[in-house]
Amino acid sequence: MTHPHSLGRAWRGGYSLAVTFWVLGCLAPTPIFIGKVWLREAGVFGSADPVIHAAGQAFLWLEWLYFAFITVALWNASIRHLERARQGGRERAAWGRLGQCLAVASGALALGSLANLSGLTTLVLGRPLYIGLGGG
Q1: Tell me: the pLDDT tens digits for 72-88?
Q2: Which of 2, 73, 109, 132 is the most buried (most CB within 10 A)?
């Protein structure tokens, strides 16, 4: 049995669009972004020490996993929001469509981030894309 306040519930769109966007998409990742700034300032991502560099890369991959998670959660919350609006609920369809647009944009950033973090853009282009995580 899953806990009612689980990541799985968010993944399936079980929270309102507002909670998914503002709490899970904006507030919850704040410590991640602060940590990233701190690690960047400390030189972790460009470190010549392979262990420190690997720790920085692990952090970026964990950040990417959250980024991908919230993209799916936002899409699913948008779908549910639209379903409730179609059924005559108090939800406004425009917010659901906006949520879908943001999820698509987030998905594009997630794909760019995946290409950067995996090294694909460096292999193909000789440098990371200036998009998403691990960008130039």
Answers
A1: 999 999 999 999 999 99
A2: 73
Does any domain span residue 54? yes
Residue 32 lies in a domain: yes
Angle at which helices 50-86 and 30-41 cross, to 10°: 160
The model's pTM is: 0.84
- Measured between alpha carbons, how far is 12 from 80 in angstroms, rounded to an integer? 9
Check if the beta carbon of residue 80 is closer than 8 Å to that of residue 13: yes
Residue 10 belongs to a domain: no
Q: Which residue do the tokens 């769109």 mark?
A: 13
Q: Which domain holds residue 30?
A: 16-125
Which one-letter DSSP state was computed for residue 91?
-
